[in-house]
Amino acid sequence: MSDNKTQDLIDSIKNKSKAIETEMSFFDHIDVLRKHLLRALLVTVIFTILAFYFYEFIFETVIMGPKKPDFWTYRMMCSLVESFPSLGQDFCITEINGKIINTEMAGQFTLQINSCIMAGIVFAVPYLLFELWLFIKPALHDNERKSASGFVFFSSLLFIIGILFGYFIICPLSINFLTNFSVSKEIENTFTITSYLSSVATLTIGTGIIFELPVVIYILSKFGIMTPAFMRASRRYAAVLILVIAAIVTPTPDMITMLVVAFPLFILYELSIFISAYIEKKRNKAMNSTELQSYKP
After folding, report:
1. pLDDT of residue 86
2. 23 CB-near residues (< 8 Å, 6+ apart)
3. What is the C-alpha separation between 40 and 221, in angstroms, rounded?
4. Using 50, 70 and 90 to split pLDDT, how confident is the model at 92?
5. At residue 284, does pLDDT exceed 90?
6. Where are the alpha helices (DSSP H) in the chain?
């Protein structure tokens, strides 16, 4: 009887020791995550301070750029009309109506803070992805680390391409339509600066996030959640969804603008299918190799 009690006590001590080790491991991970977050926050703050220093350029040239008729996109559209007159003079944008005002006492001060913070976050995204990679890297196996070694580069590249596409294509087309749209001549389009900044940030940063689709599909395919067969079977539904997203992001009445926005999304979806198929092919090859080794006499 005493032997049983002694054994129970030993087992209890062992279980308690394992629980303490697990708890310490959990808090160790939290401490590591805290360090990564602090470094990411520090870099974001540095970029935000730099945005304050170059604020005149950021506001006048970058933020207010799509509101000016001499913006790069509008000049390129007018050049296309000169080369292809069949596009029509309406395709050449030479005037953008709509007055931007401030309706709050601290509105312009808040505008400067918010725009600098958003600029700091956008510029810090590659480093934020790098810190994310450093955090998850120790939990990966050697083959997983090798296959995901380009995570930071490709994620940053897709995000930057999405930002540029959103800023130079989606943003000016949407602003032109919304500022010139009117249901009555009695109504004057007057927008608050907060509404304008929110639209520019949403269209630009939102497109950058959407362009991360291949990276998301790569991760889901790695876990076996997404398969190329499912994506091919869902292609028609994806096409409808892409057109809906394009119609929402660019609320313009013409089909050309919507198709310009939808075209890169179709390419991203097809690229995601290719990536998912590549992951599945490698997984099947590894499984077949393992089976051959297991049946080896």
Report:
1. 80
2. none
3. 28
4. confident
5. no
6. 2-53, 55-57, 72-83, 107-136, 142-147, 151-165, 171-180, 193-210, 213-222, 228-233, 235-249, 255-294
